[in-house]
Structure formats: C-alpha cells, structure tokens
Amino acid sequence: MKKFTILIPIFNDWNSLEKLLSEININIKNIKDAQFNCVIIDDCSTMQNPKIKIPSFINTIKIIHMSKNKGHARCNAFGVRYLSENKDLDYLILMDGDGEDRPEEIKLLVDKVLSEPNKSVVAKRIKRSEGLFFQMLYRIHKYLTFITTGKIINFGNYSCLIKPDIKKMSTKESLWSSYSGTFKKNIVSYNEINSTRGTRYFGPSQMSLLKLLIHSFSIIAVFKYRVLISSIVFLGAFHYLGFLIKFNFLFFQTLIVLFNIFIFVVSFRESKKDLENSQLDITNIEDLTH
C-alpha cells in the first residue's frame, strides 16, 4: 500500500479547510491500495481552529501551529522540508486549502504517479476561474517568465512529489520564495495532468495585484543569473540595432537594467538559513486519529 501525505497551508480559513477535507474524503474513498494522511500548516492564524472531525477515509491529520506568519509559499517550503525526513510516506501532494485546487483532481495525480512511480506530477493549468483582468495579468506573467528565463511554467503548487524530489527540493534556498520556480529549475523529468483552477469555497480571492507581482517576480528570481545573461544579450542587441538604424534605445535598455535590479532584490527573499531553521517556529502539533 502506497502512503500519500497531503500538505495544506492555512491562515484563518478553517471553514474552507473543513469543506476541503470532506471533499478530499469523497474523492479518495475509491482509490485502492493507497493510504492518505493530511498535514495542515497553521500559518499563525489569529482565529482559533475548531475541533476538526477526521473524515473516514483519511488515516491521520496533523495540524502544525507556527509562531510566526510567513505566508503561503514559506508554509509550503517548511512543510516540504519537515516531511523530507518522514520515512512513513511515499508521495507528497501539495494543495491550497481554499478550494482553488480541486479535490476531484487528486485521483488524476495519484493515477499518474502510480503509473510512473519514478516521476513527480504537476497539475498544469489549462483553464482558470478568475475574472478577465486577472487572467490577462496571468498571461503577461507567463510570457514575461518565458522571455526572461526561457522556461514555460504553467503550474502552481498543486502537485505530487516522489521521495527523491522531496529530498532534493528541501535543500534549495529558492524554495523559501517560490515552489514552482524551484521545481522547474531542479526537477528535470516529471509528468503533468490537466487541471482546471477551481473557485474559492468562501469569500473573494486573496490574490491582490501586489501579491501577484511578488509571486511572478519570485519565480523569475529563481533563474536570476539566466535572466542576467539574457538581459546582457538584449542590451547588446539594442545597442547594435540602434547603431544600424540610428535610433536611441536608451529607454528600453534602462527598463532592462531596472528589471534586473528588481529581480535581484526580490531574490533576497530566498534564504537557506530560514528554510533550515523553520522548524524552530513550531509552537505545537495536534495529532488527530480515528
């Protein structure tokens, strides 16, 4: 029997978590020869969590309460590192706790990883549920990432990691800032499933324009040296083209320089020390069993 652990970060959204656990339970009940456990990372919530009843097809639930609010990406980073030493799991599934990662796609992840047990699986976004403005910004983010890094990153946190990849990811300082960027940089061979972005169970999306910008630039910052080399090529090309056609490209060259400065500033969010010491922020752990 293969053992899957589902990692879910939460900040105050306990109603969504309870609904998510119920829907996970429905979608895993017919998966044979697999055991499911959940690890919830409480990102220093200001609302006390309710007493959670463990669903029938989830084996155990562990709620790890943190002393400092660090944000979604760093909760995932902590969880990956924390579970990298866990010998009682075969695969790690990362998913959001608000319903935007659809529980019905867990079976697709499980089936895919069991069909090729030596490859992790990511949920490739083929359809999003947000408004047109956000979707336009997301497309700009994807194009900018491709132009500057040469990488197509069409997935988020929703994925299933095999044990060697859990171990590899857990040592990368960039994980503290960006999961998808770190995965794309370090995991060469992996599989994909098609995924539709769901809608939040309760309340509006928590992704503001500022958070989207930080998210986008954090991914690009994982490849900052590749970005730097590409930018030098662009600067040289603009200089040569300007010489040929007698046109001043100074404005565009300045934008490229400023972009690189900003990317290197954002890269300071990465921290191997904070990643390695993240377990020191645990205040207490709740273990729920049947």
Low-confidence stretches: none
The CATH architecture name of the largest domain reads Alpha-Beta Complex
What is the count of β-strands?
A: 8
Shape: elongated
Q: Quick one: CATH superfamily of the largest domain?
A: Spore Coat Polysaccharide Biosynthesis Protein SpsA, Chain A
Radius of gyration: 20 Å
Tally of DSSP helical segments: 10
Mean pLDDT: 92
Proportion in helices: 40-55%
In short:
This protein is α/β, with parallel strands linked by helices.
Account of the protein in words:
- The chain is an alpha/beta fold.
- The protein has 2 domains: 2-131 and 154-204 and 279-289, Spore Coat Polysaccharide Biosynthesis Protein SpsA, Chain A; 224-265, no CATH class.
- 44% of the residues lie in helices and 21% in strands.
- It is built from 10 helices and 8 strands.
- The protein has helices spanning 14-28, 72-83, 106-115, 132-149, 163-169, 179-186, 209-221, 224-245, 250-266, 272-276, and strands at residues 2-10, 34-42, 60-66, 91-94, 120-127, 155-162, 190-196, 282-289.
- Strands 7-5-6-4-1-2-3-8 form an 8-stranded mixed sheet, sandwiched between helices.
- α1 links the parallel β1 and β2 (34-42).
- α4 (132-149) packs parallel to α7, α6 packs parallel to α7 and α8 packs antiparallel against α9.
- The longest helix is centred in the last third of the chain and has 22 residues, at 224-245.
- 36% of the residues are buried.
- The model has no long low-confidence stretch (mean pLDDT 92).
